[in-house]
Amino acid sequence: MSVSLAGLRVLVVEDEPIVAMTLEDLLADLGCEVEVAGTLEQGLAAAAACALDAAVLDVNLNGRESFPIAEALDARRIPHLFATGYGAAALRDRNALVLEKPYRAADIRAALETLLGP
């Protein structure tokens, strides 16, 4: 049984504009409403203020780690996953959900279903 993603409000924090736009398009095709942040500061502001159901965080934001954004999301109990080309070895929390780059729409759907599933 799959989780419905229609209407899901997803924060995407990604510093590479082409990657951010591609992920935004893929999520929109899945029926999600997307908020995009390209810097650590923008991500922190969105994590603190936006109405969100989930988030996809690039680990490396122009040389800065996105872990403070993850902590802000944790404080609000907003589930999130990390998108990285470095694998789980790049994470502090080895139990965090990782979406390996490069990814496809099916990978994103599966990762969000895992993140939000029962």
Automatic annotation (TrEMBL):
<dbReference type="InterPro" id="IPR011006">
    <property type="entry name" value="CheY-like_superfamily"/>
</dbReference>
<dbReference type="GO" id="GO:0000160">
    <property type="term" value="P:phosphorelay signal transduction system"/>
</dbReference>
<feature type="domain" description="Response regulatory">
    <location>
        <begin position="9"/>
        <end position="116"/>
    </location>
</feature>
<keyword id="KW-0597">Phosphoprotein</keyword>
<protein>
    <submittedName>
        <fullName>Response regulator receiver domain-containing protein</fullName>
    </submittedName>
</protein>
<dbReference type="InterPro" id="IPR050595">
    <property type="entry name" value="Bact_response_regulator"/>
</dbReference>
<dbReference type="InterPro" id="IPR001789">
    <property type="entry name" value="Sig_transdc_resp-reg_receiver"/>
</dbReference>
<feature type="modified residue" description="4-aspartylphosphate">
    <location>
        <position position="58"/>
    </location>
</feature>
<dbReference type="Pfam" id="PF00072">
    <property type="entry name" value="Response_reg"/>
</dbReference>
